[in-house]
Structure prediction request, 322 residues.
Amino acid sequence: MVEAPGDASLSDEELLARIARQDRAAFTILMRRHGQHVRGLALSFSGHVADADDITQDVFVMLWRRPDAWNAGGAAFSTWLYRVVVNRCIDQARRRRLRSWLPFGEAPDPVDDAPDVVSALAGREHLAEVRFMIRALPEKQRVALLLAVQGERSNAEIGSILGISEGAAEQLLVRARRTLREKIKEKEGAQ
Amino acid sequence: MTRDELNDALLRFGGKLERWPQPERDAARLLVKGDAVAAKMLSDFVAFEQTIAEAVRSEPFGATEIGTVLARLDTAEAGWRPSTRFWIVSAGISALSFAAGFAAILMVSSQDVAPSLMDLASGQVNLGGLL
Prediction:
């Protein structure tokens, strides 16, 4: 998301200080700056629009109410924010799994299929299949891959977000990329 | 660097060589410069990552999405919030209810009251023709 002139001059820390004084303009700048990544990660992780919207709104409402939740002396704000989003995604996935076991659970939401409506367009169907393959990855591999590809985070940052070492983050990425590459090759070979 | 090492490094660091650690980056550039197969491995991996990036490309977070969050804030702030007085009154009512329940148990446990309560529970008591 492109920021308005002047917005970029304010650091996340300055914005959060203003948000603590109930400055909605600062809050809007912060959402404009990070919203796409937050929602994008949540949507790619879960595949459910409703879940992604809930997580995004929860995260920003939490930031409005508790702008001091981030400790400026610790990890970078974006690293911390990704950590919050990842934790919420994993919690949401757990709740969804639990609900699916309950006899009185609600009917499952349809997976985000809006792009598939236009899958007649060349390539769309293939991308939908790749999304499906990504969602089939184990949770931590999926998160690591999304942080690398979508969030453009370094391996060290991914480790920090997931609370693991850089080497462990690399191993998650290796497994995720290897699995996906093989599945995509298989798919292309079958066509 | 060998082709196998290049493959390992691609899986670890991704297809953007500029983001690799310096030693691996330099070795990879040297390899792909003189090895067409290695160069193809790199370009295939970049294409693979572009496919993934395209598949998970996120929609812009625009005015509508921001407005939804702001509206939720307004709703939450306009909503009812229990005051300190509410909690004090609630605690008082809870304490009174507890005391009343305790007194009722004591009464039921006494010989005089228990039969009449049992009669009431079983519908045997005369309530002035109501039953």
Notes: Residues 84-109 of chain B form the longest helix (26 residues). The two ends of chain B are 96 Å apart (CA to CA).
